[in-house]
Structure formats: C-alpha cells, structure tokens
Give the backbone structure.
Amino acid sequence: MRAFAAVAVLCLAVLAAGCWDSREPNDMVYAMAVGFDIDDDGQYVAAIQFANPAANQASGGSSRSSSSGQYPFWTYSAKGHTPAEAVAALRPYVPREITLTHAEVLLVSERLARHGIGPILDFIARSWQARLLIAGGVVDGDLMELLRAQSPADPIPALSIRRLLDRVKESEIAPSAPDLLTAVSSVLRVGGDLILPVLKVHGRQSGESGGLSAALEPPAQAPFAHSGAAAFRSDKMVGFIDSKEARGAGFVLNKAGSATIHVDSPVGGLLSIRVVGAAAKLVPSFEDGRVSFLVKVSASGYIEGETAFGASTADVSDKEFANHVRARLAQAIREDIEAAFDKSLECGSDFLQLGNAVHRMLPRVWKSEVGDRWYDILQEVTLDIQVETELAQPGLLRQKPLKSGGA
C-alpha cells in the first residue's frame, strides 16, 4: 500500500513539473504561415511568417498595432537544396528558436506545385512540430507578396488566409483546403489525385506604398481571394480549375457547403437558387472492357432572388413552376459535373477520385484489368449523371415588392 502511494505521489510530482522538454515560450518565435517556392537554379525557397510578440505587447493585445509603430508580423525567406535546409537557413536571422507548432497554413507557389510538392509534404509530415490540421493551398501569384499583404479583417495574413480557407470548407460546394494528413493520404491514395484550393494574389494598387501609413487606409480591393482549385497528378500540379469546374468537383466529392446557381425562370428573367444541401453517390461498373459510372446527386435549395419584376412572382407551391425550376437546377448541376469531368480528362488528373471508386468497389477489376493503365482508360470513361432536386421554399416573399411598371 505504501509503495502504491509513493508511486502515486511520484506521478503527481511529474505532472506538476511543467513543460516536458523545458522549452521556454519566451525563447521561441512562432511561425503562423509556411510557404515554399523554387528558384531558377532548382533551390527551394522557404518563406515563414512570424507573429511579432513585441507589437502585440505594445498594442495591449488589440487587433491592430499600427498606433505602436510596429507591425504585428514579419516574413523572412531563405534558400536551400532541400525544404529542411531552406528552413534551417532562416535560423541565423531569427534570435529565437523557430517553431512550427502554431502554423495555420502551408502554401506553395504555382511554380513549385508544377515541379512537385512531394518533398514539401515529406518535410512537413516528418516534423513533430507541424500540426496535422494545418491547411494547404496553391498560390497564383507572388508568394512573398501574399505573405506580406495585410488584410483589414485580421492583423496577421496567416489568420485571414486560414479563415478564408475554412469559410470555403463551410460555405461553398467546392474542394476545400485539406489538412496535412488528408493531403498526404490523397497523394498516396490508389486511383485518385490531389486537389487543392487556389489563392489568387491581387497586386498592390497604384498609390499603395506598403508602408505603415498604407495599413491605415482601406484597400481598394482584397489583397487575395479564393479562386477555384489546382489539379494534381501524383505530386505535380497539372492545371487550374475554375469556379464552375470546382463546384462540379465539389458535388461529386460530397463537399459540404452551399452554392448560388442561376437558372432561367419559367416566367422570364433569371432565378438565383441557393443550394444548401447536396449528396452524391458514385457507382462504377465494368462491362466489355469499358468502365462507366453512375453519378447520383440529390440537392435541395431555395430561391434567393429573381430578375423578372414584370412577371408573376416565383411560387414553388405552383407544381408546374416548381417542376420547371427543379429541372433547370438539375441541368445546371449536371453541366457543372460535366465541366469538372472534361477538365479532369484535359489535365489527365483523376481529381474526381473515379479510379479510387473502382479500386474500392470493384477490387478484382482494378487489380486484373484497369489498375496498371488507369489514366489511359480514364479517357474512355463515360458518366451517367442523374440529379434529383428539391425546392424548399421561395424565401420570405409571397408577392413582389414592386408591380409591373414600377407602380
């Protein structure tokens, strides 16, 4: 009994000892964003955005520190023959120990993405510091300009970027930023390819100096924006995907979220429909040496607005009207999926995970018939797209705010 009590007291003493590795927080500097590029000589360029603790202390923890004369962040870059060497090359310039434990986003330039992101994923995945929930994306534009761009919404660009990528995941039917674990598994997954969201960098507007005074002025436009996605084959980017194609991919991949789609109204003008729920089922089949897929999508939404002010109001209780709108919404979703499939064939990338569906559901066919030459077979694949739609309600209006002629 005494031995048990002694062990219990010893365990409590160990738990009360503090940090397990005795690393003082004041001796570390926290990376908020990690970016990688590659130069003309084939060397990796690591760009890391750090939070500025001095600015945060001077501002008393407020969201802005312009009044203190200090930026809330700074960004350094260095080169190396490997990603790890490039990050290590930053250490002589930083007086504290660099830690990636708080990194929110992992960004790669378009040039590096086309060269191959395998070494980047390998380095980050091996690091015990990087969190598996770190979000990833491809930068269309200057990587350093993105990491130095201040957003009115957040004091540190990394926070704005992460919020933007999270919003895509929550509120759009489109490929969202995968976490590190998902990205690595996507590259290694049999019969499927990685797809990453794209951040497009908007250059500084004329008259913007980028200095401290510029941070006090409202920007003419957002310094960056989410813009479609990037398709990969293995670890190499093979093309950009526009918003329509990305939405189609989102439907097939069962990405949660919502989307606004416009269709022709049966009474004239256009209807904006907010799709708030969608689910898809992918069923592969193999017959006479050919692979085909049944893509079954169910979607529901509601009317957000219409442009035909001179016509009768949208009334989903009218069965004929509702059937017309549902059919046109189904056709719009079908066209989105077809656009995504056409882009997949054009790029030679199976970002719709069609091969993975064959691998999972028809394992014998994959192993003996199609696995070794899937990308050749993909070009001959056919899709049967079936879409069922439902209109929930027309919004709060039961009649138009204006009658015909503006009376």
Notes: The radius of gyration is 26 Å. The CA atoms of residues 355 and 374 lie 7 Å apart. The chain has two domains: 23-241, 251-407.
